[in-house]
TrEMBL record:
Entry's transmembrane regions: 37-62, 69-89, 101-121
Keywords: Membrane, Transmembrane, Transmembrane helix
Protein name per its UniProtKB record: Uncharacterized protein
Protein origin, superkingdom: Bacteria
Entry keyword annotation includes Membrane: yes
Amino acid sequence: MQPARATCFAFVAASVLPALCVGIGDPLTGNRAADTMLVTFFIMYYFSAVATVLFGVPAYFAMRKFRAIRWWSATLVGIFAGVVMRRGVALPGGYASFEDLWNFGMLGAAAGFLFWAVWRLGHGPDAPGPK
């Protein structure tokens, strides 16, 4: 896979994973009908894509500059993005439980790790960052 294509696909995959997990695992109405899960997926995809653009893209460019794109750095950025986005979404109601923050942090970690894994497909196994 070409490096630029792998990077773009990695950003898309990192946005899709949390939305898919929430859409399937915890639909908005609690009803596990396909249409409810699909609507939940699209609503969550919006927030996931916003997190990717606000946190993932700038972090990618910063890490690329220092050739520091590693599995652990991408995972840490994902945790940060997940927790901040969950807290941000809770602002109208003013409450985000520790369990919610944990769950969204772990979704972010999985998304960050997935980003790194897909990115790595286009950059080779020994690439610490783009050359």
